[in-house]
């Protein structure tokens, strides 16, 4: 016969090439503990429906515990001949409880509803772990923001000096996307925590087993609504892969800032020795490898999502073996984030900022020109005109090698009669920062409120 799960209708055994192609144990072994938990719940449902006598149930549960112990200890491993984790664990269970009892467990379930359930269980557990790691990173960003509450820096658009901002404000701009990623994971959980177990191969169960009992045992919510959908859809997996990719992109954007800040030319930040690397040839080198790996791995996370969606897009209902290809990309996304996030957090926690340099560069590049225009608007000059006056002042200063506050009163008046020496009061970084007191702005009071709000929001997770 062709192996334990489906051999009887075949006259010939499987070719070695098929076995090599078909085997998934090298990655789906990560689901072994969940497979056993599913079997335990399923045994309870079988017993409740009268398919296992109480003593049979007891022996079955004991047998499953033996298998669980063997998997945990590493003494139970998949064989070359095992097609997948379900196959391997049934073989092991039968070795413990015998074929008569062991052969009863498969009644009323299929690997199709099993795998759909187990992937959810795996992702739910790891989503919780990843959420925790993201919270730690947000805490690290918040601590850096707290430590630099009053430090100004050049705010840039198009990488050009734009307007001064607080370093804390800039740092918190990297925290909020991560808060939304936490919210995404929480929202995703509500959709993921449904139980396909009981959907069977595609058409639903025929033995009167209680899917709610199984769902409850597995810590899931309601059973899925449609057995075909339950076994053939992987949008829940793809949505997780999207959140992982978005997290990667959010880390990558922060990483790019850190890489630029650590350059000799910008010189805003120094990396801790423990969170940077050297060169095998250039003795002086100190490289931001964690940030670069974050940037690089974000490509991999996006690729995992793209690959998965591509696998799904042309599939007819219901289960198709293509669906086995969902696991490697999404497992890779999980492992990638679980190794990346702690390193990234350590790097952020230990960043040392050159706040003097950042402060001295904050007003450079005529970054207070908008403040000149706003000062004019407060004196009832129409903004269109104020913009032109400020632009003319920038041109004048650039030609004469002056900063915006340096012309004489006469020179101001020559640019525009609206400009008086009083404009100099508006031309300080501190004044500019304090004036940006609109909702979500960079004024120190607003940033303090923002930090408090961030801290409050993160406590939800
Ligand atoms: N290993 C399969 C998967 O990962 C589950 C088994 C279903 N196989 C099948 N031939 N119906 O999707």
TrEMBL record:
Catalytic activity as recorded in UniProt: 2-(N(omega)-L-arginino)succinate = fumarate + L-arginine
Report the GO terms under cellular component.
Answer: cytosol
Annotated InterPro entries:
Arg_succ_lyase_C (IPR029419), Argininosuccinate_lyase (IPR009049), Fumarase/histidase_N (IPR024083), Fumarate_lyase_CS (IPR020557), Fumarate_lyase_fam (IPR000362), Fumarate_lyase_N (IPR022761), L-Aspartase-like (IPR008948)
GO MF term set: argininosuccinate lyase activity
Q: Where is the Fumarate lyase N-terminal domain?
A: 22-303
Q: Which terms under GO biological process does the entry name?
A: L-arginine biosynthetic process via ornithine
Q: Which Pfam families match?
A: ASL_C2, Lyase_1
Assigned EC number: 4.3.2.1
Subcellular location per the Swiss-Prot or TrEMBL entry: Cytoplasm
Q: Which SUPFAM superfamilies match?
A: L-aspartase-like (SSF48557)
List, for all copies, the residue spans of the domain called Argininosuccinate lyase C-terminal: 366-433
Protein's pathway: Amino-acid biosynthesis; L-arginine biosynthesis; L-arginine from L-ornithine and carbamoyl phosphate: step 3/3
Q: What keywords appear on the UniProt entry?
A: Amino-acid biosynthesis, Arginine biosynthesis, Cytoplasm, Lyase
Q: What's the top EC group for this one?
A: lyase
Family per similarity comment: Belongs to the lyase 1 family. Argininosuccinate lyase subfamily.
Query: HAMAP family given for it?
Result: Arg_succ_lyase
Task: Write the protein's name.
Answer: Argininosuccinate lyase
Organism of provenance:
Diaminobutyricimonas aerilata
The beginning of the lineage is:
Bacteria, Bacillati, Actinomycetota, Actinomycetes, Micrococcales
